[in-house]
Amino acid sequence: MQPPASFPQGVDDKVSFHRTELSLILSLYGRMVAAGEWRDYGISLLRDVAVFSVFRRTAEFPLYRIEKRPKLRSRQGQYAVIGMEGQVLKRGNDLRQVLRVLERKLIRVVE
User: Fold this and answer.
1) Three-state SS for 92?
2) Could you tell me the superkingdom of the organism this chain comes from (predicted)?
């Protein structure tokens, strides 16, 4: 009998998105792709932050970064949406509320 597989050293101490968090983010991502706004994404899992980056085209700077920083949970909020220039567009502890700043981009005037 083989012992259970273990993660390489250091993997378990990284911040990651939970399945429910990813579901919310990917739902928004799918709607933005359907609207022709976004085309690609990348996920980075680091020691202090998990980042979901969205791109208009592959291999360019991200349009937006959705960050999760658990250490800021009791201060400013663990979730943040950050724009291309580094400005914080929205921050808070409720991911659904934080993502609303990006959902407004889907609303357009139809002539």
Assistant:
1) strand
2) Bacteria
Other CB atoms within a 10 A radius of the CB of residue 87 amount to: 8
Q: Per residue in 38-73, pLDDT tens?
A: 899 999 999 999 999 999 876 678 999 999 999 888
Report field, pTM of the whole predicted structure over 0.90: no
The domains of the chain are located at 19-106
DSSP symbols for 21-82: HHHHHHHHHHHHHHTTS--EEEEEE-SS-EEEEEESSTTS--SEEEEE-GGGTTTT-SEEEE
pLDDT confidence of residue 60: 78
Enter the DSSP assignment of 86: S
**Backbone phi, psi, residue 97, to 5°:** -70, -40
- Please say whether the beta carbons of 19 and 27 come within 8 A: no
Q: Which CA distances in Å does 55 have to 4, 41, 58?
A: 38, 6, 6
